[in-house]
Amino acid sequence: MVKIQAILLFLLAAAVRAEAAPLRLWYDFAPPPASFYAGQEVKFTLTLFDAIGLSNIGVVPTDWKNGDLYMENPETGKRIERGGQVYDATVFRFGLVVKSAGRTDYSPLCLMAKGSVLSARDLPDYVHVGRAGTVAVCTPPLSFDVLPVPPHAPPLFPAAGVELFEGVSPRSDTVKAGVPLKRSLILTARGTLDAFLPDLPTGAPDGAKSYDGRTERTLSTAGKELIAAVRKTVVVVPERAGRLELPAIDVLWLNTATGRIEKSTVPPRVLTVVSDVPDVVPPSAVSPPEARSVDFFNPKTAAGGAGILCAALLFASGLKRRNRREKLRKAVLDALKKQDFDGASRAIVDWAKNRCPKRKIVDLGGVRAVYAKSAADFAADIDELQAYLYATGRFGKHVPSAQTALAEKLARSFGQACAATVKTRAEPKKHLPDLYPD
């Protein structure tokens, strides 16, 4: 009888310990809000806490109709302790845009991973163990009330923030009659899709002919929120001399953070139209100082004159090289100050060719290869410059803050590259013997 009681007590204690044992895998889910506007980006987060040692963690593709789902790069490397158990935490952040109003229901969002030792005994109900060491972690089904954007004339679009700005080329307040100028209007909006942005009005100024150009749309998904942009270009041809006013441009939008209607404006721009743009008056010519000459045929002055001549030639040659390099360096900084990244890329290549004439440099990739070790920050910023110039979408061209940040970073790292020591000759290639010798 005593033995039976002891066995029962042991089994009961083991059951209590098993019940109190910490879970080996669990998640924390911060769902999207229950209601939001059609076209509005909403955020939600899923954090996975793993004490199993999972690998190949990924998101199972969804089939959410009428919704676009975006995911940031997972955040890894965090460790937490809970109930005496240490977990690796992986944070998944998502953005969702539902594109039409109405009641919307979506199936659960699931993560799939692999684990070496898996047992459902100490796992929660929302973790499903499959074959070949796979495990799925799924959220509950998602349901929302998607609200329509309030009717308005002109129609509104949802956004968390809006920037509206213009660029006029040529960059002068004085233009010539009959010579076309280009006005570009750019609208950027945070937290929505580019399809929801309106066609920008351009307005027709008095005293000029206007021709609408292309409308371009783009969407950036690389940051922590969506940023949509639309650009509209109009060509204006002044017809007569006098005053030309490019009209103000207003855009109305719905602030999804406050629920209020807001207005972004580009103010009017006044230009002076002349029949002929006067030339810049050149500065007055300055007479050069009188030069002292040396008679090289005079024995008393020939030796000294020859020495002076050699020194002067060497000094002039070195000075010329230094002046050329300084001119190229200044060209890079001037282009970055103007945020002229096309010009900056050409100036950087010219500067690098001058500094390392025996290295094969034909483009920014060649510059990066030369400075990859001696100026790593500069090489990294070269990568960012190339992405800005050539990557699909090239969205940074529409965002003033992105342009400013890139220009400042490049200017700093370029200064470090100027002071860095680099190999002016390429390392010799190691030639292997022919596979099929004669």
Kindly describe this structure.
There is one protein chain. The protein has 438 residues and is of the alpha+beta class. The chain contains six helices and 22 strands. The protein has helices at 2-20, 299-337, 341-355, 364-371, 376-390, 400-419; strands at residues 25-30, 35-37, 41-50, 55-59, 67-71, 75-82, 85-98, 102-106, 110-114, 127-129, 134-138, 142-147, 158-159, 161-169, 174-176, 181-190, 208-220, 227-238, 242-246, 249-255, 260-266, 269-274. Strands 1, 3, 5, 6 and 7 form a five-stranded antiparallel beta sheet that branches. It has a four-stranded antiparallel beta sheet with strand order 4-9-11-10, with no helix packed on it. Helix 2 (299-337) packs antiparallel against helix 3, helix 4 (364-371) packs antiparallel against helix 5 and helix 5 packs antiparallel against helix 6 (400-419). The longest helix is centred in the C-terminal third of the chain and has 39 residues, at 299-337.
Question: What is the CATH topology descriptor of the largest domain?
Answer: Immunoglobulin-like
Structural class: alpha+beta
Largest sheet: 5 strands, antiparallel
Alpha carbon gyration radius: 34 Å
Which secondary structure elements does this structure contain, and how are they paired or packed?
Elements: H1 2-20, E1 25-30, E2 35-37, E3 41-50, E4 55-59, E5 67-71, E6 75-82, E7 85-98, E8 102-106, E9 110-114, E10 127-129, E11 134-138, E12 142-147, E13 158-159, E14 161-169, E15 174-176, E16 181-190, E17 208-220, E18 227-238, E19 242-246, E20 249-255, E21 260-266, E22 269-274, H2 299-337, H3 341-355, H4 364-371, H5 376-390, H6 400-419
Parallel strand pairs: 2-12, 13-20, 15-22
Antiparallel strand pairs: 1-3, 3-7, 4-9, 5-7, 6-7, 8-12, 9-11, 10-11, 14-16, 16-18, 17-18, 19-22, 20-21
Helix pairs in contact: 2-3, 2-6, 4-5, 5-6
